[in-house]
Structure formats: C-alpha cells, structure tokens
Amino acid sequence: MTQSRTSQSKTSQSRTSDAVDGQRLWDRHMALARFGARDDGGVDRPTLSGVESEARAQVIAWGRRIGLKPFTDGIANLFLRYEGRDPALPPVVAGSHIDSQPTGGKFDGVFGVLAALEAVEAMAARGARPLRPIEIVAWTNEEGSRFAPGMTGSDVFTGTKTLDQVLPIRDAQGVSIADAVKAILAGDQGVPLRPFGLPIAAYVEPHIEQASVLEAAGIPLGVVTGIQGTRRYRVTVTGEAAHAGTALRADRRDALMAAVRMIAAMDQAAMEPADTLLTVGLMQVTPNAPSVVPAEVFFSIDLRHPDNTIVDRVDGEIRRIVEAERGPCQVALKQIQHSPSLTFAPAIRDAIGKAAGALDIPAMDVYSAAGHDARQLHYVCPAGMIFVPCRGGISHNPAEWAEPAHLTAGTQVLADVLWDLANRA
C-alpha cells in the first residue's frame, strides 16, 4: 500500500521552510493544550464551548500579531487570511480543527492549525508575499463528540449540508448547534462574518497519523493518498419495562437483549475481509436499573473500509440484521453519515512529495483510516494531507504524543508546499 518517496537534495536560497521556528511551533501546542487541560495531561475541549472560544481567541491573537485578518461564517469556521499580491484570486487554504474528544490529546487537529500558522509566519518573517492569498482554517465540530455527526463546519462550507440541516442538532444537554454558534460568534472580538461559497484554489491539511505505519517504518512524513469510506448509524430499540423477578422470559420485550443480538450478528457480518472496521462505541439503556427489564436501548454503529463495495455490502447486512433480530421489540435505524472512500488530487500529493524530497525529509505514501475535513474539501478543490507520526499510533487519548522534530519537519514541508501552490497562476 505504501511507496517510498525520496529524492536528491536540491539547493534553494531562502526557502520558506528555512524560516520555520520549531520551538515556537512546540510552545504554541503546549499553550493551546492549556485550554481544556485535563489532570492526566490530556485535553477536553468540546466544539463550540466556552473553552474552545478561549482557544479560538488565542489563535486569532497569534494571527493578528503577524498581520493576519480573521474571518468567520455562519457555522463559526475560523479563517486567518494572509493577503496575496492579487487578492482577487481564490486562496490556498490549510488547517484542521481545535476541538477535541473528551479524552483527547494535545496534537489531534491542533497540529494542522498551528502548522499552517507557522508556515505563514515563516513567509511573513521573510517579507515574502505570494501571488494568491493563503488562509488558515480551524473547522467547526470536526470531532462530532458533542454534536453528531462531526465535520459540521466543512460540510456546511462545501455545501454538503445546509445550515438548516445542522443548526437544530442538539447535544446531550439539549443545547442546539444554533445556540452554541450564536454564543461563539458573540464572543469573537472584531471578527467579520463572511458568506459561504468562497472559491478555493487548493486545500492542504497537516495531521498526526493516528496510526503506527510511519512510526513502524521509521519515516517522519506521510503523503496521504486518500481516506477510507465510512457509514455511521444510530439505532433505537424499543421494548417494554418489566419486573426482573416476575416477568416471564416468553412475555418480555427486552430491548437490551434484542440490541445484543443485533450487535453480535453485525460483528460476524463484518468479519470478512479482516480489515473491515465495525465499532459500537455508544450505548444508552433505559431505565438502566438492575431489577428492570430494559425498555429502550440507543446505540451507535461506525462502519469503515477502503473499498466502497465492502462498506455497501455490510450496510445491507446491518439493515437486514436489525429487523431479523429485533424479536418482539420495535427498531428504528437512522444513517447519519455516508462518506465514500476517496483518492486525493495527484497534483497536491506530488507537491508534498517534491517538497519533502527537496528538504531531504524521507516520506512515504500512506492511507488514512480516519476521517478528516479534507474529505469534504476534496469535492470542491484539489486537496491533500500531510501526516506525521504519533507514538504507538495512539490518538483520542491523553497519551497521544508527537515528537517535536516530526512536527517541525511536517511544517517545513507544508510551508514550501503552500508557497508553491500560492504562486501558481
């Protein structure tokens, strides 16, 4: 699946990458990790929350110090613009997200935003102005841990979904995206609101790998070839509460037993091929009392595979299984997301590989098993991703770790790629 990408070193005077400051990049990662810091060293920074608003203000402040102009939109995506010599040209965009999982780490998403900021600061330090504008972006709700599904900001920005579709979505406490966005925008200081539909020349997203392919190969940089397909569902099984000591098994409408049968059958249906990934990560039982037959079970399904035909086959099995195993209960299955597998633009992948080769940074092709906002951008402009290793492949975990040298290398490559793309007519 992977292919080595190395080349002879090329001499170049005053490259953008030469001005990348790895210590500043690292210090900003540690500074941003204080917003939502957990006692175990991790980060809990829910999307559209007060603590994310504080982190957002810090990113804006860093951008303003180097002359970047902030913008936002109706879903609270954050943009920092480095003006080009021709402001009328569509910008090159780079970034990721700053929201986290409840047990998140310091690097997931954040690296993409801070690497893009450092790349632009390197240009500013050289007094270099590209032909096209460059915009740094922090997308809203990439993680989907507070409001499901994730990638809300990039979905609305690209037109995959509309504001009317996402604003009514509520979190576990009943807060809607509409109310959360309103609070975030009210907290912004002097950040103009922009309409959707901004044309983009290209999009590059740096990210930690969230897998161990690069680490195992001893390679510090990955040129991401594509993202595997996924379907996500929510299932509600409705039965009837009953006394655990008196209700006969034959008379019960046990929602949990029905859900367990469904999940076990789905697990078997996803066994082949072996790299099919099926996860039930969320389950809510009502009334959740030890002496009461469960009346309702709500659970999630996350299905992934690089081959769209495999995902579609298991999708059919899931739909068959929920009906076949419900017994006397009622069942409602709702698919909340379908994202087919994709291959990133060869032009962006080539630009990343050439920039790494010119810097003598070993690189290899890798495939992304996780979803990213670059998936949505892929459909509206040439898009690609840069991966750097993370220790043990651990992510969405306080133990998530990336070496400073790898973060710096990825940012150096990004800086030269952005300079290249932003100077193309």
UniProtKB/TrEMBL annotation:
Spans annotated as Disordered: 1-21
Domain of life: Bacteria
SUPFAM superfamilies: Bacterial exopeptidase dimerisation domain (SSF55031), Zn-dependent exopeptidases (SSF53187)
Binding annotation for Zn(2+) 2: D108, E143, H396
Annotated Zn(2+) 1 binding sites: H97, D108, H207
Protein name per Swiss-Prot or TrEMBL: M20 family metallo-hydrolase
InterPro entries: Amidase_Cbmase (IPR010158), Bact_exopeptidase_dim_dom (IPR036264), Peptidase_M20 (IPR002933), Peptidase_M20_dimer (IPR011650)
Assigned keywords, A-Z: Hydrolase, Metal-binding, Zinc
Gene3D superfamilies, sorted: 3.30.70.360, Zn peptidases
UniProt feature, compositional bias: Low complexity: 1-17
Co-factor(s): Zn(2+)
Domain Peptidase M20 dimerisation: 226-325
Family per similarity comment: Belongs to the peptidase M20 family.
GO MF term (any one): metal ion binding
PANTHER family, A to Z: ALLANTOATE AMIDOHYDROLASE, ALLANTOATE DEIMINASE-RELATED
Organism name: Phreatobacter stygius
